[in-house]
Amino acid sequence: MINRILDRLEETLIITFMAAATLVTFSAVMMRYLGGSGISWAQELTIYLFIWMAKFGAAYGVRTGIHIGVDFVVNAVRPSIRRLLIIAAMSLGVIFTGVIAFFGGRWVIFIYGTGQISPDLEWPMWIIYLAIPFGSGLMCYRFIQAMMLFFRSGHIHTHTYGEEEDREIDVIHEQEVRS
């Protein structure tokens, strides 16, 4: 249940950030094209929206199996070694994203203490930097989820298209509900 809510929240945030960035950019260009001065803070907001979108998008990529991976070596070795390589890769993913989330959290605390604000929007920078611990923390959680799925079933998330994707997601959620 909590995973389904987290899945929808993740997807909603990604869509919202992307749509907002597109709308802000389009509006700024149209205002400038129509002879106005444009929106002075549009570029800064668009950059921040894309940063947040990318951090949550990376977690989504791990969850759905669309994250870029080099699997040539993994697919070329025998199954016993393949299992070790997959576990090692996922473990490194957990460690790396966990470390980034931890130090990202420390960075947010540091920036909060400095009172820095963004140049055009004049927003507190610590809020903008929250993308690092939130996005990396979620990505770490997704790596842990993927590793647990691998331990339970021997399968890793793979991305398929259309109806197959829907069936795969349903199977994964059914497995999560059972456990």
Could you give the count of β-strands? Answer: 0
Q: Determine the number of helices (DSSP H or I, runs of at least 4 residues).
A: 7
What radius of gyration results from the CA coordinates? 20 Å
Question: Which oligomeric form is depicted?
Answer: single chain
- How many domain modules? 1
Low-confidence stretches: none
SSE order in H/E notation?
A: HHHHHHH
The major beta sheet can be summarized as: none
Task: Summarize this entry quickly.
Residues 22-149 form the Tripartite ATP-independent periplasmic transporters DctQ component domain. With 179 residues, the chain is mainly alpha-helical.
Summarize the structure in words:
This protein is an all-alpha fold and 179 residues long. It is built from seven helices and no strands. The chain has helices at 2-33, 42-64, 72-76, 79-114, 125-129, 131-153, 163-178. Helix 1 runs antiparallel to helix 2, helix 2 (42-64) runs parallel beside helix 6 and helix 4 (79-114) runs antiparallel to helix 6 (131-153). The model has no long low-confidence stretch (mean pLDDT 89).
